[in-house]
Amino acid sequence: MNQDETFRAEGFRAEVRAWLEDNLSGEFAHARGLGGPGREHEAFDIRLAWERHMAAAGWTCVGWPKEHGGRGASVEQQVIFHEEYALADAPARVNHIGENLLGPTIIAFGTDEQRARFLPPIVAVEELWCQGYSEPNAGSDLANVQTRAELDGDRWRISGQKVWTSLALEADWSFVVCRTEPGSARHRGLSYLLVPMRQDGVEIRPIVQMTGTSEFNEVFFDDAVTDAGDIVGAPGDGWKIAMATLGFERGVATLGQQVGFRRELEGVIDLARRTGAIDDPLLRDRLVRSWIGLEAMRSNAVRSMAGIAAGAPGPESSISKLVWGIWHRELGELAMDVLGAAGMIADGGPYDLNDWQRLYLFTRSDTIYAGSNEIQRNIISERVLGLPREAR
């Protein structure tokens, strides 16, 4: 950056930091640190109220173009916003899927009518979204989707099952990848539909996890309906659009995520000092390696921002997902080793976990959700390194 760009960036950082400090007070003073992976159930109402407070002040969708309700922030400013948000220990966002996944997809691929209908309620946090991708036999192998939709007059009728659907109980809408061409297979014949969740044809069943919480859900579509116009792109474009959405998912918000990772690592180091585990040379070496891994992760994420600045991120974003998934899982294992035998004892009955136990259990899923390690390695080998495709 030149001197003028640096000055503008620091001015924006000061603006974000001051607003967060002034507004994480009063009724929101106790919202700091609420929510997050393994704790999405926590204080949902106050977090929703907080995010609507942000919307009223113009602090949602900061990276969206101004004509679509955003601030038109540069990639660098978006990074600053997410970093400062994490540094302020502000509550976990409830509108992440709408703001960071569906919204950019509609902006890039939607019609003018779809932008006018769906973008303003996302900016205002008036409608929440969930993602209808994975199925019991189509998780990492998303191209095996079997949920079907057929056009019946002026409506699509959808039947099938989705699984691992985050925030399904809270969501008003879901973007659903389904098979709309009978007899099609793999990537062909898929479409990307926008489906209202609050209707008789949708049943949601929470999945109780090892943490005792239920961030993920099963969703059953039994002749559910949506308007004929609620399709993004043309019928058959579903795979292309779904992959673009996944690219947006691994955007600038990951740098804010890494601030949270740093706070967790600092907590584990402090725990090691208090328990005396830091005197164990093997554990001390692992702590150092974890710190080095986090620094390398940040460097890779900053490098990948150039691709985001040029448009939708490419397959290189799979590197970031692979790196942070493994690193975070290993941090959970390290936390338990620092705790030692005490890590096997719950804080209270029947299943009252402390933060480190919850971190360990939830991070077992980090290398699976949002694209499993196996699939990320295939993408990197085939699309980045140009190696032969995996035999099918």
Automatic annotation (TrEMBL):
Every Acyl-CoA dehydrogenase/oxidase N-terminal domain range = 10-125
Q: Which GO terms describe its molecular function?
A: flavin adenine dinucleotide binding; oxidoreductase activity, acting on the CH-CH group of donors
- Provide the cofactor list for this protein: FAD
InterPro entries to which the protein is assigned, alphabetical? Acyl-CoA_Oxase/DH_mid-dom (IPR006091), Acyl-CoA_Oxase/DH_mid-dom_sf (IPR046373), AcylCo_DH-like_C (IPR036250), AcylCo_DH/oxidase_C (IPR009075), AcylCoA_DH/ox_N (IPR013786), AcylCoA_DH/ox_N_sf (IPR037069), AcylCoA_DH/oxidase_NM_dom_sf (IPR009100), Mycobact_Acyl-CoA_DH (IPR052161)
Positions of the Acyl-CoA dehydrogenase/oxidase C-terminal domain: 236-385
Q: Which Gene3D superfamilies match?
A: Acyl-CoA dehydrogenase/oxidase, N-terminal domain, Butyryl-CoA Dehydrogenase, subunit A, domain 2, Butyryl-CoA Dehydrogenase, subunit A, domain 3
The alphabetical list of record keywords is: FAD, Flavoprotein, Oxidoreductase
Task: Describe the location of the Acyl-CoA oxidase/dehydrogenase middle domain by residue ranges.
Answer: 130-223
Domain of life according to the entry: Bacteria
Q: Which GO cellular component term is one of those annotated? A: plasma membrane
Q: Which family does it belong to?
A: Belongs to the acyl-CoA dehydrogenase family.
Q: What is this protein called?
A: Acyl-CoA dehydrogenase
Organism annotation: Sphaerimonospora thailandensis
Q: What is the lineage of its organism?
A: Bacteria, Bacillati, Actinomycetota, Actinomycetes, Streptosporangiales
